[in-house]
Amino acid sequence: xxxxxxxxxxxxxxxxxxxxxxxxxxxxxxxxxxxxxxxxxxxxxxxxxxxxxxxxxxxxxxxxxxxxxxxxxxxxxxxxxxxxxxxxxxxxxxxxxxxxxxxxxxxxxxxxxxxxxxxxxxxxxxxxxxxxxxxxxxxxxxxx
Length: 144
Hints:
The chain is mainly α and about 140 residues long. It is built from eight helices and no strands. The chain has two domains: about 90 residues, no CATH class; about 50 residues, no CATH class.
């Protein structure tokens, strides 16, 4: 059975009120085996299913388990595909020449700022200074 069928069957599990009502109905007609069969024949297919499922212990939990099992492989495959996409993106970043150049530029700029230029006057830098990094990279690109 597929997931949709299992979920549909789980929806038709008897509630406590339905189970009590069906039990009372069957008890009233349990005087003989023949009366019991006649009572069962009077029930529709859905009610017969509910009678059959009344005696199954933890039926809802068992359906949850079957649903999980039926969905497991497709969900696992989705996760594997997403992990593969992340791995591929990481590999592309590792091989990226543009990223290497950008990191080199950041390192060069950071070293220049931290050394303080001439006279070794070390100074810190603010995040605003990093925003100007784009301007520096454009100037450097023009000079290359």
